[in-house]
Amino acid sequence: MRTTLIYAGISGTGFGIMGKGMDGGWISHGLCILAACAKAQGFPVDLIDLRALRDWDHFRAELVARQPQVCGLTMMSVDYNPVARCLEIIKAVDASIITVVGGPHPTLATKDVMANLHIDYIVTGEGEVTFPALLEAIQGGNPPWQRLLEGERPDLNEQPFADRDLFLDEWRKAGYQSSSPEVSFVSELEPPFVTIIAGRGCRYNCSFCKPAEDRIFGRATRRRSVKHVIAELEYLRERFHFRSFMFHDDCLTEDRPWVTEFCTAYRKAGFTQPFFCQSRADIIVRHPDLVQRMVEVGLRGYFIGFESGSDRVLRFLRKGTTRAMNLEAARICKRHGITIWANYMLGLPTETPEEIRETISMLKEIDPDYYSPAYYTPHPGSDLYHYCLEHDLSLIKDYDSYRRNPTEPKIKGHDFQFLKWALAESQRRKPWNAFRRRLRSLARNSPATRAVRRIKKMAVAGA
Ligand code: B12
Questions:
Q1: From the CA of 358, how far away is ligand 1's center (Å)?
Q2: Are residues 198 and 112 in the same domain?
Q3: How far apart are CA 185 and CA 363, in angstroms?
Q4: Are residues 103 and 193 in the same domain?
């Protein structure tokens, strides 16, 4: 039975972006793991990645050429429009093709997705067990009668590794040359670059995310064993010769015993490749020893959700951090030479212009290596989304606006001109910071520093 998975993450970017920039350089781990699980059960699976196509006619032609019996589509809220268009075309090409959707939006806005009659099955939650079981049932001529299927939670240590060749094969057909299907987005992480996910869920309770994510992955965080993750890294070393990587986990450092065990095992397995991961200001401040240990084995950068420079806003977001912690965390990172990727939001509900100025002044003090600003965007299933609905604050009118990218107002009550100014001002470095940053980057890339790094690597490899 032929199954085609479809990645339709082109909202806001359009076709033909494969391998280009941030949006064109990611794989969908969700689809890769589903492909691996389906293949492990004997089902052949291929992929259509809209980013590798020219236009909708090209998509139609691919479908006609492949003649799948089942199409599986993944969907964040922002992906709804391109996914809906795919479904329309699939059913027009051959109404007997069985369509299955899953991912965050079907799980969090199930009713909305149910209303789309081009969809035969909706799988909520995780798909590793349920998707192959569905294929089995369809192949056996015994498909479930109900459209809505609740995904069974898998044991993460029992799953095959994500099948990254799903994307690479597809990209190669479209003329992509690289040896890895993922594109690095910072100079600190050299290609070949890969991403990996050690676990699912997050133990924190931020109102802009929770409880939505609990509904996808369950309330408790589950993490693969260190052994399983190291085995995947060994496979990736062998397969893609990666020179850097990043963890996609929402907050890898929440589980300190796991991270400590990982650091020891990473070094023992002879890895020296630098990596980035997500952390939080409070964890960095309370556990500088953990930071130190991570740096020793290759940590090169942290993504940190600083979110706001106002303590009142941080409390409103249930972030569990303070402005003082944000500043101290940045100081600790700088002491260790860790690159800071600063995530923060502007234009939150209840936020005043004065509080936005506090975020700007905090960023000037933090002086991060990378700014990652967003206009707060209410996402289905989170407490803050419901707050916005209750208070009639949301300006989201179309699925395409679920992008956090700061291009349009998302919340009523903010002066958009002021937000635009704040966005630019928050990223304007103080002259002294700009000068120091230039020096830092020269030092980081100087031949002497590179030589020291090489020697360290050799020493570790030899140890
Ligand atoms: C890595 C990541 C990214 C990466 C890579 C995205 C990608 N293409 O995969 C980047 C940085 C590019 C990114 C971008 C965005 N992201 Co993001 N991202 C994540 C993150 C942290 C991990 C995703 C992941 O790999 N998870 C692990 C895999 C295994 O899970 P999964 O994909 O959900 O798949 C499982 C199930 O959902 C299900 N499933 C999924 N698809 C299908 C399909 C079928 C047929 C079936 C049966 C089952 C099924 O089975 C899979 C295995 O169990 C998640 C949070 C999280 N922890 O998941 C947010 C998350 C998915 N992102 C989110 C958002 C909002 C965005 C952006 C819109 C942000 C923005 N810039 O505005 C963009 C949109 C990108 C786009 N489509 O164009 C939200 C989505 C919320 C929503 N309602 O849609 C999440 C949940 C974060 C959050 N808590 O708010 N993201």
A1: 30
A2: no
A3: 21
A4: no
For ligand 1, is residue 53 a contact (CB within 6 Å)? no
Separation CA 180–CA 165 (nearest Å) = 9
State whether the beta carbon of 104 lies less than 6 angstroms from ligand 1: yes
Residue 19 shares a structural domain with residue 69: yes
Structure tokens at 51: 């980013």
Tokens matching residue 50: 């809209």
Among 71, 76, 189, 382, name the best residue to mutate to test ligand 1's pocket (greatest count of ligand atoms within 8 A of Cβ).
76
199-200 and 222-223 strand pairing: antiparallel
The verdict on residue 364 lying in a domain is: yes
Is residue 332 a contact partner of residue 288, using CB atoms and an 8 Å limit? yes
Please choose, from the candidates 125, 117, 123, the residue with its C-alpha nearest in 3D space to the C-alpha of residue 135: 123
* 25 part of a folded domain: yes
| CB of 380 closer than 6 angstroms to any ligand 1 atom | yes
**Looking at the chain, how many residues does it have?**
463
The domain that holds 412 is classified in CATH as 3.20.20.70
Q: In terms of C-beta density within 10 A (0-12 exposed, 13-18 middle, 19 or more buried), how is residue 280 classed?
A: buried
Q: How many domains does the chain have?
A: 2
Q: From the CA of 77, give the closest atom in ligand 1.
A: 84
* Contacts of 8 by beta carbon, 8 Å cutoff, 6+ apart: 50, 73, 74, 75, 79, 82, 83, 85, 86
Cα 231 off chain centre by: 22
Q: Which of 11, 27, 29, 249 to mutate to test the pocket of ligand 1 (most atoms within 8 A of CB)?
A: 29
Whether 434 maps to a domain, the answer reads no
Hey, what are 69's tokens? 């019996």
Q: Is the CB of 248 under 6 A from ligand 1?
A: yes
pLDDT truncated to tens, each residue of the chain (463 aa)? 999 999 999 998 999 988 887 888 899 999 999 999 999 999 999 999 999 999 999 999 999 999 999 999 999 999 999 999 999 999 999 999 999 999 999 999 999 999 999 999 999 999 999 999 999 999 999 999 999 999 999 999 999 999 999 999 998 888 888 788 899 999 999 999 999 999 999 999 999 999 999 999 999 999 999 999 999 999 999 999 999 999 999 999 999 999 999 999 999 999 999 999 999 999 999 999 999 999 999 999 999 999 999 999 999 999 999 999 999 999 999 999 999 999 999 999 999 999 999 999 999 999 999 999 999 999 999 999 999 999 999 999 899 999 887 788 899 999 999 999 999 999 998 888 888 878 877 776 677 777 766 676 566 555 4
Q: Which domain holds residue 287?
A: 185-428
Do residues 101 and 195 share a domain? no
Whether residue 255 sits in one domain with residue 128: no
